[in-house]
Amino acid sequence: MSHVSMTVNGKQMSGDAEGRTLLSQFLRETLGLTGTHVGCDTSQCGACVVHVDGVAVKSCTMLAMEADGADISTIEGQAAEDGTLNALQQAFQDHHGLQCGFCTPGMIMSAADLLKNNPTPTEAEVRHHLEGNICRCTGYHNIVKAIMAASGQDVSSIAAE
Amino acid sequence: MYNFDFEKPSTIADAVAALGDDEAQALGGGQTLIPTLKQRLASPSKLVSLKGIGEMQGICIADDGAVCIGGASCHADVAGSSDVFAGLAGLAGGIGDPAVRARGTIGGSLANNDPAACYPAAALGCGATIITNNRAIVADDYFEGMFATALEEGEIVTEVRFPVPEASNYQKFEQPASRFALVGVFVAKYADGVRVAVTGASEEGVFRWAEAEAALSANFSAEAIADLKLDSDGMIADLHGTSEYRAHLVGVLTRRAVAAAA
After folding, report:
1. Is residue A159 part of a domain?
2. Is the ipTM of this complex over 0.90?
3. In chain B, which residues have their Cβ closer than 8 Å to the Cβ of A44?
4. Nearest Cβ partner of A57 from B3, B46, B102?
5. What is the pLDDT of residue A158?
6. Three-state SS across chain B?
7. Do A144 and A157 touch, CB atoms closer than 8 A?
8. Which residues from A are below 8 Å from B when comparing CB atoms?
9. Quick check: is A155 in a domain?
10. Which has the closest alpha carbon to B123: B78, B173, B154, B76?
11. Contact check, Cβ <8 Å, A131/B31
């Protein structure tokens, strides 16, 4: 066991980790931040995406000890303190960008990463960026629509709801 | 996952020393190794992260014009660098998905030499030089078959040097679930000839398609190889495609790469 410290959603947090402890496991089981989901065991589904030092990564494919000292953002840090959703979260709600909601934390974190680097992506760019995020409910249309709406674009003519 | 110790040295020398321990293994971005560990297909006693080594980061242009990429540079850095020529940047930008590109490294990809990985096609297609902690290996001597390379135990890919082609392009036919190449072809045109490297197709791993290179060196156009067929003997056959299908794809993708080369 080693002691691992990181800044998570602006707060300093720490706990013990083995060499094999995944970042996703550390966030969920040690820090109690269960908003980060684990949907597969093969690094394909993207439900576990968080930001590490400002970059979206799959937290199930990074060791907790690799994140020692890092600045982490998770889904829990996206809404305001009073629970007001951020623009992306609100757009997912407004455009029915989720059904069961399991993939949503990863979708939101991946989308936030896209919009940071490309504030007004095309539909094709959104779909390309979400290649590593799997949703089994929605068929993606409303997720894409929500992300484009959150970027301030007119989405009235794109995917059907 | 079986448990292991973890070290994150800050110099190549410390990493080499740490890798001297029995059953120690280098960890690049972990985008292949960590899933492998999850499946309990590997059980190293210790992982030595190469991500904290400053001298293995970054991209620069050497005095001879070659693009030098630190072994611990991630795919997103290569894809987004203005110092990297379009064919290589495009290849890096198409590996996996954005989160994988943010972690996975060129050194890790080349050290693993997955038969369906993208980077081996670029390294062999460009005649790159793989620099390790103690020597320089030309790509033609580096790749030794599926998951096999000239690297010795504990040897680290610290840098990769790509001579800049006049024109190049990489075309990948993705296996849609894994985003690995069902077949990928890197074409690079140099003053002294054209190189064509194929990944994903052969049971021997990445290889050069000599007949296409000869034809394209004489006439760099898709028409020059329109009638060229690759023998399907030795091509991979699995549930995603037959060996004949892969051999066919090699021809199609080579022509597309030539047409798109810039």
Report:
1. no
2. yes
3. 177-178
4. B102
5. 77
6. CCCCEEECCCCHHHHHHHCCCCCEEEECCCCCHHHHHHCCCCCCCEEEECCCCHHHCCEEECCCCCEEEECCCEHHHHHCCCCCCHHHHHHHCCCCCHHHHCCCEHHHHHHHCCCCCCHHHHHHHCCCEEEECCCEEEHHHHECCCCCECCCCCCCEEEEEECCCCEEEEEEEECCCCCCEEEEEEEEEECCEEEEEEECCECCCCEECHHHHHHHHHCCCHHHHCCCCCCCCCECCECCECHHHHHHHHHHHHHHHHHHCC
7. no
8. 2, 18-20, 22, 41-44, 46, 49, 55-58, 61-63, 65-66, 68, 110, 113-114, 129, 131-133
9. no
10. B78
11. no
List chain B residues with CB under 8 Å of A103.
Answer: none
Q: What is the CATH number of the domain that holds A34?
A: 3.10.20.30
**pLDDT-based confidence at residue A160 (cuts at 50, 70, 90):** low
Is the pLDDT reported for residue B226 higher than 70?
yes
**Taking all residues of chain B, what is their mean pLDDT, rounded to a whole number?**
97
Residue where the block lists tokens 């907790």: A64
Residue A119 lies in a domain: yes
Range of the domain at A15: 2-76
| Residues A70 and A48 reside in one and the same domain | yes
Residues A59, A91, single domain; the answer is no
d(CA B262, CA B254): 14
* Model confidence pLDDT, tens digit, residues B109-118: 999 999 999 9
Which among A76, A101, A127 is the end of a domain? A76
Q: Are residues A92 and A58 in the same domain?
A: no
Do A39 and A94 sit in the same domain of this protein? no
Domain tally, chain A: 2
Residue A161 lies in a domain: no
* Residue A24, helix vs strand vs coil: helix
Domains and their CATH numbers in chain B: 5-162 (3.30.465.10), 167-260 (3.30.390.50)
Q: Could B34 and A63 be called an inter-chain contact, meaning their C-beta atoms sit closer than 8 Å? A: yes
Give the tokens for residue A56: 């979206």
Task: Name the β-bridge partners of B194.
Answer: B189
Find the CATH number of the domain harbouring A128. 1.10.150.120
Q: In the prediction, which pLDDT does A156 show?
A: 86
